[in-house]
Amino acid sequence: MIATLPLAVLGITWQVLVDAIGLGAVYALMAVGIGLVFGVLRLVNFAYGQLIMAGAYALAFASQWDWPLWAAIIFCFAVVIALSMAMDRAVFRPLRTQSPAVMLVATFAVAFLLQSVALLAFGPLGKPASSLGYLNRPVTIGSVDIRKITILAIVVAAVCLVAVVLLLERTRVGLHMRAAAMDFRTARLLGVRANRVIGSAVLVSALLAAAVSVILTVQNPLVTPDFALRDTIIVLAGVVVGGMNRLLSATLGGFAIGFVSGLLGGALPTDQSQYLPSFVFGLVILVLLIRPAGLFAKGGTQVERV
Fold first, then answer.
1. Are 46 and 236 in contact (CB under 8 A)?
2. How confident is the model at residue 269 (pLDDT cuts 50, 70, 90)?
3. What pLDDT score does 250 carry?
4. Is the pLDDT of residue 272 over 70?
5. CA-CA distance, 248 to 268, in Å (whole number)?
6. Residue ranges of the domains in the chain?
7. What is the Cα–Cα distance from 237 to 239, expressed in whole angstroms?
8. CA distances (Å), 17 to each of 11, 210, 260, in order?
């Protein structure tokens, strides 16, 4: 009873707390995908949300065609991976020797191009993805209704984070990724194959994007051309707040901004929920004023400027 008092004073219930942890887990997954590509390529991929959107559309069409669940998920992963590899081969690889500013603008262009293509091809009204709806049903524990997808999101996030850490720490490709993240040019001189390392980072990032597609589509079954766009912007802010130069700090930043967004969204009255982005990005500005290198970055970490 006493333990719940501070939460009650802030207008936060255990239900809100559980939902905030679930949202933080999803944002942490997105942050890992974004942080991997940034670590190797020094590229902030603003088109990451469009990869998630493509996977969501794949699930929507699979639902429309009455495909079984396993086939729909495989189709989602295949679409996201193919689009991610095509994006790397057609856009990022030719611009790899250019300045970070050029690559940043290129990701903006790709993001809005894919969004426009989805708008022209599928229309603005969206497509429903109803085949995964049962995962949105709650499981009651005490007085708290925990949606199955929230439990799944937390489990998937934990498993994926452990798998990525093992990949980076225990495999040859992971060693090359870490070397490339520290000093890409020197790593190439020492024999690291650039295309292989970048391709591996892009592939892992695409796998994480596909997993996020499944989770977000269950939570928001109406897929529109701007699907996951707002989430991507918030996660990018979280990655910056956490510290972009280390994958762990970027992941913690993604979880933190998702958790805070969930708490504020639950604490704010319904008629004031439109102010949530203002509160979130106000906190982002405050954190960056206090710790420009990132909230979870090491003290000596330098801020990288574009």
1. yes
2. low
3. 85
4. no
5. 30
6. 5-290
7. 5
8. 11, 26, 10
- Written as six digits, the tokens of 213 are 């597609």
Question: Residue written as tokens 């420009």?
Answer: 292
pLDDT at 11 over 80: no
Residues 6+ apart with CB under 8 A from 203: 81, 84, 85
168, amino acid identity? L
Q: Which two tokens stand for residue 153?
A: 């999101």
Q: What type of residue is 237?
A: A
Confidence at 207, pLDDT banded by 50, 70, 90 = very high
Helix (H, G, I), strand (E, B) or coil at 262: helix
Closest by CA to 258, choosing from 273, 275, 241, 246, is: 241
Phi, psi for residue 274 in degrees, rounded to 5 = -70, -15
222 sits in which H/E element: strand 222-223
Distance (Å, whole) CA 301 – CA 48: 26
**pTM value?**
0.85
Q: What is the tens place of the pLDDT at every residue in 38-75?
A: 877 777 888 999 999 999 999 999 988 888 888 999 99
One-letter amino acid of 194 = A
Q: How many CB atoms lie within 10 A of CB 14?
A: 15
Query: What CATH number labels 5-290?
Result: 1.10.3470
**Residue with structure tokens 């990451």?**
48
What are the residues whose beta carbons fall under 8 Å from the beta carbon of 235, sequence distance 6 or more? 27, 30, 31, 34, 254, 257, 258
- Measured CA to CA, the distance from residue 2 to residue 189 in angstroms comes to 60
Closest Cα to residue 208, out of 261, 249, 263, 247? Answer: 247
Q: Which two tokens stand for residue 162?
A: 């452990």
